[in-house]
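Exam revision sheet. Question 4 asks you to relate a sequence to its structure. Input first:
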Amino acid sequence: MGPRTIAFIASFLIVFAIAILVDRVLRPSLRQLLQEITGLPAATEFYLRSFMIVIFFIAVASALGSSHSDLKADSHFMEYVWAVASDLKDALQGIFGALLGYVTLITILVAALRRRQV
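Answer key, structure tokens:
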């Protein structure tokens, strides 16, 4: 395995681990919020699954989009570290954007359903 392949695998594994971490940290409280607001188990499952799918697709897309083609075979170790960090930055930026969009969606959902319940 060449150094570019190792950098790609490291990027992919780190980004995938971050996606799993974000999902596992947010899932319990998000499930509770959606269950309280909607009262529909099917809606809760739909929003949770769509959240997971979006987060994982963004993470995988950012990892697969990195080719590390700018790295040379005689590059120093820190150049590979910076390449992986750059991929990590792209993944976190995409995940943050998805979280921002999802929070906006949930806020609108909460406001609309709470108004209807009152």
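Marking note for examiners. Residues 35 and 41 are 7 Å apart (CA to CA).
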